[in-house]
Amino acid sequence: MKYRITAVILILIILITTVSCGGGGKDKTAVTTASSAETAADATTEIPKLPPSVTQTDLEGFELKINHHSQQWLSWAKNILDVEEMDGDLFNDAIFERNRLIEEMFNCKISVTDQERIGADHVSKEVMAGLSTYDVWYNYDIWVLNAIEYLMPWEVLDYIDLGAEWWNPSATDVFELNGNHYAAASNFSVSVLSRCAGFAFDKDVYEQLGTDSLYSIVDNNKWTVDKMAETCVAAYSDLNGNSQMDDGDRFGVNSSFKELYNRFFLGSGISYVGKDDEGFPLFTLPDDVGAINKIQHIIELFSDRRAFNPAERTIAESGGMGSFNNSTLLFVSSNLLGLENLRALENDIGFVPNPKYDEAQDRYYAPSFGAEIAVLLKTLPEDRMDNTGMLMEALSYYSDKFVIPMYKEVLLKTKYTRDNESEAMIDIIINSVSFEFGLNAWQDTVANPFVIGAIVKENGNVVSTLESMRSSVDYAIQKLNEKLLSM
After folding, report:
1. Does the residue 35 lie in any domain?
2. Phi, psi of 396 (to 5 degrees)
3. Concatenated DSSP letters for 55-109?
4. Which is it for the CA torsion 455, 481, 138, 55, positive or negative?
5. Is residue 379 domain-shared with residue 345, that is, in the same domain?
6. What is the pLDDT of residue 275?
7. Which pLDDT tens digit goes with each residue over 411-465?
8. Does residue 62 carry a pLDDT above 80?
9. Number of domains the chain is built from
10. In this structure, are 182 and 78 located in the same domain?
11. HEC per residue, 118-139
12. Mean predicted confidence (pLDDT) in 106-116
């Protein structure tokens, strides 16, 4: 199977090769020229074959219609699905080329509509009216289950391989209920990856501590919650010399409660909500003694005000003292999109994954929440299912081949990071993307009430907070199960 390879894809291949061969530091660029790339692009070159689940088919002008959030509304995630033309921005150009490649291969049209907000009300109104305006919808993750009775499981589509890496199964599987997946974290959108959580840090502040390289600590499997707490406490300094803990001092970490503690808990492999043998949700945390012990230890570690001093006790507002702007802070909770915003700082900024609970933990976790994920509506006509499945699989697969590497190699590793070591950290984070049912699906039912009750209100009693939540969460599970069984 041979197709014309355009300049942007050739540049991508050169970039990936350059980086993998150990190219330079923060000013590294791919050495190529527009003329040489364009000349090579005119050649007929073989591209990666389609995945085994898909066969190239002439779809005779079929138009795949997709509806998702506008970038203006979902400003906290990167969610561009199509662009009108190439503009020299390599990431945008890769998206343009991916879509045009699929259109050429399948003789089809990829049509993307941006909408300011897509909630459960939009989904329900569409289905109740018997409409099928779009083949694929992208819903905000915490709103998906609010309209589950109007959704069609992805299993109805042939050609889709939800276990493949381009569907991010560690994230997608959270929305598998009673044997059916009701939402999918396809790499067709980088929204989920852009929200992968980690911590940015001020390298100059860290170097003043005179300790081992933070990157080597991560590489040597010693980046744990205890190590981070120890480092945060060591970073504290009474800079103004008034013997009081106030805005004039330097602190360990700045974050909202929601961002900070969900990173620590989920990064430690803790689950809020599990599933029974038949795939129905269970509120497992109240009975998980090991997880509760971990949570209590984490809360104790970061109750030290030198590490985290919350000026505002709200769930979502960033209230920790200290700031990167005046070098009075070591860490700030961030994500891959956040690297773009930090680029404007004069500080020398690094980036590391969420800490593990301890060295025995076999992997890092990068919780991603607040992204858009793909859903199918019950009104999708049967005669559009095959083409929709075929094209979504192909788009997700070629995203994994071209768009995701461009996002990693060009935006994250070349434009937004400032040292070679951060590149390895980005690989760890992207390869560790994960969802948690109690956060991604039921943030307002489980994650937020738990963090508010156990930490924000400073009662410190994890067990009593969980017990106080048990009846309401179990009731929510009961109502969800009734919907699932009736579908």
Report:
1. no
2. -70, -40
3. -----TTEEEEEEEE-TTTTTTS------SS--S-HHHHHHHHHHHHHHHHHTEE
4. positive
5. no
6. 96
7. 666 666 666 777 788 889 999 999 999 999 999 999 999 999 999 987 779 999 9
8. yes
9. 2
10. yes
11. CCHHHHHHHHHCCCCCCCEEEE
12. 96
Return the amino acid letter for 67: N
Q: What is the pLDDT of residue 177?
A: 96
Domain with 252 in it: 197-367+424-486
CB of 483 within 8 A of CB of 148?
A: yes
- Paired sense of beta strands 108-115 and 44-46, if any: unpaired
| Within-domain flag for 240 | yes
Residue closest to 331 by CA, chosen among 297, 295, 307: 307
- Please indicate, yes or no, whether residues 351 and 298 belong to a single structural domain of this protein: yes
Residue whose structure tokens are 């006509």: 381
Who's near 17: CB < 8 A, 6+ residues apart?
A: none
Instruction: Give the CA dihedral 121, 123, 128, 134, nearest 10 degrees.
Output: 140
410 plus 430 within the same structural domain? no
Q: What is the pLDDT of residues 420-433, one digit of tens each?
A: 777 788 889 999 99
E strands along 259-325, which residues?
Answer: 274-275, 281-282
Residue for token pair 């992968």: 196
Same domain flag for 110 and 175:
yes
Alpha-carbon radius of gyration of the chain: 23
Q: What CATH number is given to the structural domain containing 153?
A: 3.40.190.10
Examine residue 14 and state whether it is found in any structural domain, yes or no: no
Residue 221 has pLDDT above 70, yes or no: yes
Claim: this prediction has a pTM higher than 0.85: yes
Both tokens assigned to 484: 């699932």
Q: Which of 407, 9, 23, 481 is nearest to 194 (CA)?
A: 407
> Do 333 and 375 have their domain in common?
no
Let me know whether 60 and 116 are in one domain: yes
Q: Same domain, yes or no, for 237 and 295?
A: yes
